[in-house]
Design the sequence.
């Protein structure tokens, strides 16, 4: 759709994903710039055919702990979870567990780690995804999801494609400028967007 609209929308589009629990609809806009005092931009690359947009992820900060990355990651609004290379994931997971300091509970399916009892006060630190030229600060709502009786980290390990999923993008206006080949992030209350 965006490639067909092209110059009619100035080769730009953005979306703003609402929290799952909000009951509000997410929004999609065409032809607008993402702006604001906290907006940051990073270049993207594509492969041939240009199916996915890839961002250069330099590192991830969890409080005072830094986890180096130095790899490309696909940004995908159609993938729920964030997938990181196993050693990077382990660094993020361990730093979060240490910072939270609440005893985790097991995930019966064995997919998510850590998990905590639903309703536990996590006080998780911000997690900063350090893209080339853009620090994107993820809050607790971008990192954890509560299902029934557990609240679990929504970052999982993989050895395949690394993906920055849609939970991580909640409450950001995420804008794509296909001419400049940049992706911009602006923290936004997407329920009021």
Sequence:
């Amino acid at each position: 759709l965006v490639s067909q609209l092209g110059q009619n929308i100035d080769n730009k589009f953005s979306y703003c994903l609402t929290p799952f629990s909000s009951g509000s609809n997410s929004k999609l806009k065409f032809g607008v710039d993402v702006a604001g005092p906290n907006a940051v931009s990073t270049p993207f690359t594509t492969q041939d055919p240009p199916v996915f947009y890839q961002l250069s992820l330099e590192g991830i900060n969890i409080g005072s702990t830094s986890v180096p990355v130095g790899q490309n990651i696909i940004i995908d609004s159609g993938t729920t979870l964030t997938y990181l290379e196993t050693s990077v994931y382990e660094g993020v997971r361990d730093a979060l567990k240490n910072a939270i300091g609440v005893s985790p509970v097991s995930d019966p399916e064995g997919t998510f780690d850590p998990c905590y009892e639903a309703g536990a006060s996590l006080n998780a630190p911000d997690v900063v995804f350090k893209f080339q030229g853009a620090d994107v600060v993820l809050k607790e709502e971008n990192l954890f999801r509560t299902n029934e009786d557990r609240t679990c980290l929504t970052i999982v390990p993989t050895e395949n494609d690394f993906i920055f999923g849609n939970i991580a993008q909640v409450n950001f206006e995420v804008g794509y400028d296909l001419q400049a080949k940049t992706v911009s992030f602006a923290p936004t209350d997407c329920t009021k967007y």
Q: What stands out?
A: The two ends are 22 Å apart (CA to CA). The chain has one domain: 1-187. The first helix runs from residue 2 to 5. DSSP finds three helices and 15 strands in the chain.
